[in-house]
Each structure stands twice: as C-alpha cells, then as structure tokens.
Amino acid sequence: MATDVLSAAPSPGPVPAPAHAPGAGPGPAAAAKPRRRIRNRYLRGLMTPRGIIGLALVGVLLGAGLAAPLLTSHDPNFQSADALVGPGSAGHLYGTDEIGRDLLSRLLYSIRTDLMVVLIAVPLGLLIGGALALVAVTHRVADVAVQRLFDLLLSFPSLILGLTVTAIAGFGAGSIVTVIVLIEIPSFGRMLRGAILVHRDREYAVAARIGGAGPLRLLTRHVLPNAADPVVVQVAVAMSVAVILEGAMSFIGIGIRPPDASLGGMLSASRPYLEDHPFYALGPLVVITALVVGLNLIAEALNRGARR
Amino acid sequence: MTISLDKPIDEPLDDPLAAPAGSATLHGLSSSDALLRVRGLHVTFTSERGPVHAVRGVDFDLARGETLAIVGESGSGKSTTALALTKMLPGAGAVTGGSVLLDGPAPGDPVLDLASAGEDELRRIRGARIGMIFQDPMTSLNPLLTVGRHLDEAMRAHGVADKRKRAARAVELLDLVGIADPAKRMRDHPHQFSGGMRQRVMIALALANEPDILLADEPTTALDPTVQAQILTLLENLSRELGTATVLITHNMGVVARSAARVMVLYGGRVVEHGRTEDVLAAPQHPYTAGLLRAVPRLDAPYGQRLHGIPGSPPDLASPPEGCAFADRCTLATDQCRTEQPPLRAVGSGRTVACWVSDGPLPLPLAASGAVVSGGASGTEVAEALDGKQAFAAARAADVHEAGDVEPVLSVEGLGKVFKSRRNRVVALDDVSLQLFPGETLGVVGESGSGKSTLVRTLVGVHPPTAGRIVFGGRDVTRPSRADVRTLRRSVQMVFQDPYASLNPRMTVGAIIADPLVSQGLGTPGEHRRRVGELLERVGLDPAAADRYPRDFSGGQRQRIGIARALAPEPSVLICDEPVSALDVSVQAQVVNLLADLQADLGLSMIFIAHDLAVVRQISHRITVMRGGRVVETGPAEQLCADPQHPYTQALLAAVPSPVPAARTAAAA
C-alpha cells in the first residue's frame, strides 16, 4: 500500500477541493498545477548543457547503430573488389577495408553490439546486483553470503573472466553480455547495499518506523528513493565501462567473432594500415571515445542533478 | 564577485586610514589605541542564485586586550565577518570591499591592510598574530597527529627553530590551558581527549605563537553547559593574563553577558547595534536586539511564562532588502524603514544603533516580576497575553501531579540498557525509573552521555532495553507483541532534534505528515489530505506547504512539519528529543510556545528532553535530571530549579549563563 497520499487521488467526488488548490476547478486540479521547473531532479540534471551534449552523443551513435540497415545499402560482410579505398570513392562513403568491405556499414553494424551491451547487459547486472543487495540487507547470514559472492566475482580481472567465459561458452554476443553482467553485479550490489545501510539508520527512517512503517514500506518509500542516487549515476558509468570492455574483448579476439563487425575487431584489423590508411582505425576509435565521453557526461549530469 | 553594492551611508570616506570624524565617539575608543580597525567590510558569496551579500558594510575597532562579542543568529554574517578578517573564507566567498587594518607588532610599525594583503603576508599573520578557535573541537584537530605534534607544527610554521624550545613551550601551553600532566599528555592523540579538553588544546594551539588577537568562532557551542563555563573562564583568564584581544563570535546572549566587554549585534549582514555589553543587554535600543533578548529563556524569569519569539524569518541576502533588513519582522517598522537603509548613529558614549524609529531603550520583560511586556511589544503579543495565556503559569503550577495521585500513562521501572561490542561494554542506562502522568510535561535534562537519547529510543521501541520494565496504559510493553506495537505507534510519537535529517528529502511535506496515517492504515487518501491541511494550520504553517519539499523550508518551519507529523495519528504521548537545540533563539521560542500550546490544548503527555535547563524549566511540570545513565534528581520544575538538592543539578543550574550583564561585572572589571 505504498500509494502516494497526495498525488494518487484524482477522485473528484464529494471531497471538497483542498484549500490550497489555488482557485482552480475541483478534483485533479491540485495534481495538474502548472510546472515551472522540471520536477524530477535527474531529468533536471540531464537538461543542462553537459547532460544534453552527453545525451546527444550517445543518442546519435546508438540511434545510428539501430538504424544501420536504413542508413547504408552495403552489406557489412560483402566483399567488393575495391580494397582499402579512401572515403568517398567508388560509392563507399567511408571507404573500404583490406578485403573490400564497406567501412561505414561495418562501423554502424558494430555499434549494435554496444547497443546490446548497454541496453541489456548493464540493466541485467543492475537487476541481479540490486536483488542481491536487497537480500543482503535482510539478514546477517545472508549478508555474509552475498558479500563473499561479490568478493569472489571481483577477484577475477575482467579480461581473464572474459577468456574463461569464452572458453566455456564460445564466441559471440552471449559471452560478452555474460562477462559484463558478472562484472557489474558486485559493483551495483555493493553500492546499493552500502547506501541502504546508511539511509536505514538516518533519522527520517527512524521517524518513519516510529510512525508505524513496516519493513517493506520503510524500504520502498523511505530508504530506496534516497539510496538510489549513487546507483543511478553508476548506471551511466557502468555503461561506459561496458563499452570499453566490449571493445577490449573484441580487440584481443574473444568477443564478436569475425567476420561479424565489431569496433574492437576493426581496430585490431586496422593496425597494419595505420600509416597509409589512418581513417580505417580512426572510425572505431572515434565511436568508442564518443560513446564513453557521452556516457560520462551523462553520469556527471545525473550526479549534479542528484545533489540538488 | 561583484562590487555592485551601493555604498552604505555609514561607510567612511575614501581613505580608510584617515579616521572618520565621528570615529572617536562612534567606537568609544580613539583610533590610535585600536589594534584592529575594520571599515566598511563587504563579503559576497557567488551562488547559483547570483551573488549573496553576506556581510554588507561592517565597521568596528578592537583595542589591545579587550573582548568584543559579535552576536547574531544564523545567516547574520557573524562567522563570515570573522573569517573575512584573515581571508579564510570558503572558495565561493570573497572580500569585495572595505579594509581590515592591523597595527604593526610594535609601536611605529607600518599598518597592514589584511583585506588587500597577499596570501604570503596573510600566512605570516594567521596563527602568529591572529589565532583562531573553531566551533567543533571534534573535527578541528588532525586525528593522526599527537597533541604535542600539533603544537610543534604551529610553532615551527612561524619560525621557532629550536626543537627543544618548542617542546618546552608546548608543555607550558598545555599547562596554561589547564590540562593535567601536560608532559605526558603531549604524546596522546586527539581521540584520547574529551570535547572540552580538545577545545582546551585548540586554545593552546591558537595561543602557541602569542597572538595579539584571538578569533573564537562559537568556541563553546558544541560543548555541555558545565564545560562551556570552564572554557569561558579559561578564555577570560588568558585574555587578562596575556593581554590578548578576543573577538568572540556567538549566538548565545548568556555567553556575551559573561565574557565580553563590548558587543556588536549583526543582522542581515549589517551592524544593528554596538556598544558596551552592560548598556546593550540591559537597555537595548534596536528592536532586533530587544527581540533577541526577550526570546532568551531565563532561569530568573517567572515560571511558566511564555517565551517571546520573533515572528518571520531572516532576509534573503541574495536580494538584500532596500531598507532596514529587520523591517519585515519589526513591529515598529515604518515606510521609511522599508525603503531607506538606517545609518548607524551614535546614541551616547561608545554606543551606536541603526534604526530609524527607536529613540531610547526598548522594554524588556522584567525578571522575577510577572509583568508582561508592555509598550514596544506588538499588538498581537499583548493580545495573546491577555487572551488567557497568562493563566498558563498558574495552571501549569497547579497541574503538577503528586506520585500515586493518578495512574501514570507511561512508567518506566529500573530500565537498563547496555551496548556491547567485541571490545567494550557501555552502560547507557542504569536503573532508570520515571513516571509520566496524563496531561503533564516531564522535562529530562542532562549533558552528552547522560543517556537521555538512549532513554528516548528505548521508550519508542527503536532498541529494546536490557533490563527493567516499560508500562504503557497499564500494559507491560517491554517486549511488545504485534498488537502492542500497533497501539504504541498510534499513541506514542516523537519529535526529533535535527529538523534537517528527520524529514525524508524525497517526499513532499504532505506525504511526510500523512506517512504515519498511511503506514498504520488510518483513514482514506481524502481524509489524509484534510488532516494534513488541518495539522499544517495547527502548527502555524500555510496548508499550501503540503505540495512542497522540506528543502524549501527553514529550520524552524521544518521542525513544525516534524511536529505535525508526530501529531498526525493523534498520539497521547509526545516525546520530544532536543526539539529546539538546533534552532536559533528567536525561532526556538516560537517552537517551545507551539509545543506548550499543543500540550495544553490537546491534553498531551509530553516528555521534553534538552540540555538547556532554562528552556526545560519554562515548558515542564516536572523535571528529571540525568547523569551517566542514571536519574540523579526528579521534582516539580520550579522547585527543582529554585532549590536543587543534588550537587550535579546545582552545577548545571550554575552553568547556565544568564543574559543579565550584572553577572559578569565582577569577572570583567
């Protein structure tokens, strides 16, 4: 029964409009008051120059990845006769690679892996890590068990974990997602657990308990909304870490398996041609950098918004 | 960082070094014997809402060896003024005008303007010629360094090269500030000292290089009353023996009366009144000073008399008022007050006041005679007094129950609480027995570590006691059943100390107040809304506040919200844990009055916990004094204060500084 007493009351029935509804009509008038500023502080943080630039960078790149089939008519795996041509030549807007594949379409299609990592792996890690944190704060024994599990996961360096998972489950997107989820679980879990423990002892939480709030209401209505701040910021940070990790795994060849396109794979393949065809390496580099910078700008904007 | 401020009328003319014509009479001292001369000091903070003008033209002189108190409430600019003297302002603040002229160490040495001095010069001044003591002795010492090391560094930084000399001097300093066995304690770390002892160490540090001036920013605010008295005595003695001039920043009128020869009252970043302590405190001429003095709870005031708060809240210095900053809260304000800045004008020897209206001393409530404020008091105040509230005192005294007379609502027998950790065992409560009768207010007084907060938390069931019994309404609720917990949550509610920490920042005020109702499933959302509106009005807030967030409110308003929340489930017992100790005096008085009214109107039984006996006395029927987890004395409020039996109660009473200047004449003369 964690309904908000004040906002969840659009029943215009016989209840007299509260004295403070400023001369407006009856019923929902109170809820539909004119809003001069953005109510949600995260949104307010994002609607700053910093946040807008971050959102634009990430939005444009991820959107381009999503719309890849619409933006380019070249099959990313089709090998044409023109190998290593420069941008603009022979109908290839961004040139071709060493075996004549269109670089622009490979770039666009490889963003799709990042899309998946960002939109599936990180939320999944948050979900599992958060659930474990909630288990941890319920009981002392559960706390010890969960914390040791986090320690165990943290004890693997990420690339070693990547190699292990790939060795067991084989190449492909599934392995990348698994590795990132495993890495994000303890980082989200520890952070949320710590924040819950801090806020559970704050005076307003004690006040809520004295007001009669049970454990569930205490958690959902009082503790979690306050404990969420660092976690929300961490989501954006985790996404940028995930983008880098995906690049690194593909770069050393344990991520997306060739011939499928990946940013790390392209970077790795471009190395012999750095001198003569710098644009080849530049493409994936710029995309990775822009994604990471954009996500970090978003994280900083959220952080500043949360501190209000 | 703008210097867009209008030049205040009272600011001296261009050359700050030329003593202004009226200076001698203005400050009661000729400029020649002044050690520090502050002229037209302006401090501006940059904030998101634009520049905040925290200090707007402050002038004062400080002579060698004298003690000047700067008083004011939060936001008055008193701490900012002190920090600005040595340019120790936080990053967002800057001195944007005026001068701070410090005489050379010897006669004939050049005068240095600290306001325009470079960082190198300032570093040579700070700690050497101007020492500082801060409010919180717990955080102002580095926990990794021994006390001896602190002192050693302070002297080395200012060029005492000989290590043995420094060590000898450090021992001497610790001895000077009254630390027993100084040679041995030099090797101790800060955590091995109590709060009062740490403040002594801070004073020793500030004195290490024999400064000419000691800036003490709320040096006793974080300390218990008995310790406060010791520290003030120490400061007085040192100032007399060493000839150090002291600038004492405080919000406590009692501290001023006790320790300072002159007092300067700040409001809204400007000086409103300045003069000899005896004159200002005995016959204030500015309505704000008078209001502040009226708001201070006093032990010698008639029992049960209402406190007089100052309605309204301080001005927003991001957009400073055109006229007098106090005009909005002043009952005497005229149109001129609202549009024109009143200049500081001399009214008698060494005495200045910035007010358009007042011409002569404003009335104060007379101690010990039951007389209600007359004359200058506001119409509403008088009406209130006539409105039967005066009967309050009589009723209060008559209300005192004899034990065994009626059934107590809540009684505690032999309550004990021990906190155990792996290494130590702390006895927080030891055989505490109390009874709370219907419709009475029981004051619980004690210093830090007396167990009063543990008592509260045990009573409301936040942590279970390790011994004894709690009986509520005839039922033993020491180990409450689920049904008992439900009853307790409805009937026993609590008001917290910190109005900032005790309200959930993510909920609207309406949701906060309705929270106990929702948690306990009482009523429908529609009823909740009505009840929230009712409660907000009841505690003196606009019902429209329900849609806003706690951050939009001041400390006093937040405390009212906390009270409204506690009243929501219609409790029969209200436990107030230091409800006013985080508030300014003028606001404290309002909240104490509100609680007293609520108690009388709703027939609540109330436990009022505080460390300030003067406040507790005004609101309580009976008082219990606690020390070290034990009850040392319980009795009717007036009787206990007039005729304390236990030596500790006597010490507590003696330690309450009274704002009557006569009390200090002997010490300062």
From TrEMBL, chain B:
Its main location: membrane. The keyword tRNA processing does not apply. It holds the Pfam family oligo_HPY. Belongs to the ABC transporter superfamily. Keywords: ATP-binding, Cell membrane, Membrane, Nucleotide-binding, Transport. Residues 38-293, 410-653 form the ABC transporter domain. It comes from the Bacteria. GO terms for molecular function: ATP binding; ATP hydrolysis activity. It is found in: Cell membrane. Signal peptide: none annotated. It is a peripheral membrane protein. GO terms for biological process: peptide transport. This is ABC transporter ATP-binding protein. It comes from Yinghuangia soli. GO terms for cellular component: plasma membrane.
